[in-house]
Amino acid sequence: MQMMVCAGAADQAVSQWASTFAEKGLGVAKKVGDLAGPMLFAFAGDIGCGGGPTLAGAAAAAAGDDLHRGILVAIIFPVLMLGSIIMSKKQENIKSK
Questions:
Q1: pTM above 0.70, yes or no
Q2: 3-state helix, strand, coil in the chain (%, to 5)
Q3: Which of 19, 41, 57, 94 fits as disulfide partner to 37, beta carbons 3.0 to 4.6 Å?
């Protein structure tokens, strides 16, 4: 029972965070943000959960059904994203000085 309560509280917090993100980031009204925020995050999650394994499978098939190479391709994308976030933060620090 306690786990269900914690899961419900976490779900509520995430939906509120997503709606605030949509309101401030997109500059929309609160009612639109309450609908668009969680919807956009759910959609992005679905794309990521479907696209990642598809890309790994396609890369493995292109490499002669070598699943190790497919997984390597799947690992490269998050590493590139992390690198781009780090570079973006460094550019922000340079501009603010």
A1: no
A2: 90, 0, 10
A3: 19
